[in-house]
Amino acid sequence: MQVNNSLTQFRLSTPRTFVRMLDFIRNVSQGNWIVTSIRSNWYFMVPTPADSEMTWNSLWAKPRFYNNGSCSCGTSSMCSSPAAIDGRLVPGFRVGCFPLEALLQSTLECLYDITCINMLQSMYTSSNLIYHPLNSTISASNTTVQSLVSELMVDRWETSMNYTGYYASCAPVLCTYSINEKGDLIYIITAILSIYGGLNVALKLFTPLIVKFGGFLLMHHRRQVQPIVATIEMHK
């Protein structure tokens, strides 16, 4: 029972710990408005004399817009749009202010379709490697990457407990265990009699000693008490 509880606690705490670390990185990047290396959230402009609103010899940063220009990276880091390569949409994938945020919002729909995989392969590689689509029985194609990451991309936890191998490796000299169970009527009566018998034996052993010790204290006290004789003289 204790082993099962420990394993259950491990399965619950491990994904939560990973998600907390990932959220911390996301919050730091978003809170400090860090510019990505591909400048997907902000881009810089060098003003020209024609730009009356900008100071000459200065560098200005402007936010990028996504979702048909309705979402600005200056106000939200969650902005994203469908991903397209050479004008062709990639099903499921998205681009946005931060690549990580866009990936978490994406699905792996394209990787379940061999046609989409071949399209990506033709764009980025000319090798003879063969790629196979993902197994749709493990996870649905419309599941977001964030949902998969929240589960550590683990489909099923399997546990194998081998107590024989454990004791063979540890080789314990002594093994003890306790069983918690509710006592029946016979057990209760036996326990009461045992307690009564123990008290009876203890009283038989210690009562004479207590009586003798009390008598000794009494005799010692009497010896120390001296009679006081008062002499009264009377003068005529």
Describe this structure in words.
- There is one protein chain.
- With 236 residues, this protein is α+β, with helices and mostly antiparallel strands.
- The protein folds into 2 domains: 2-48 and 56-154, no CATH class; 184-226.
- 43% of the residues lie in helices and 11% in strands.
- It has 6 helices and 6 strands.
- It has helices at 2-31, 99-105, 114-124, 145-150, 163-170, 185-224; strands at residues 42-45, 60-63, 65-66, 71-72, 80-85, 88-96.
- The strands form 3 sheets. A two-stranded antiparallel ribbon has the order 1-2.
- It is elongated, with a radius of gyration of 42 Å.
- 7% of the residues are buried.
- The mean pLDDT is 81.
Quickly describe the structure.
The chain is an alpha+beta fold and 236 residues long. It is 43% helix and 11% strand.
Question: Termini separation (Å)?
Answer: 103 Å
Number of strands: 6
- Secondary structure class reads alpha+beta
Low-pLDDT residue intervals, each spanning 5 or more residues: none
Which keywords apply here?
236 residues; two-stranded antiparallel ribbon; two-stranded antiparallel sheet
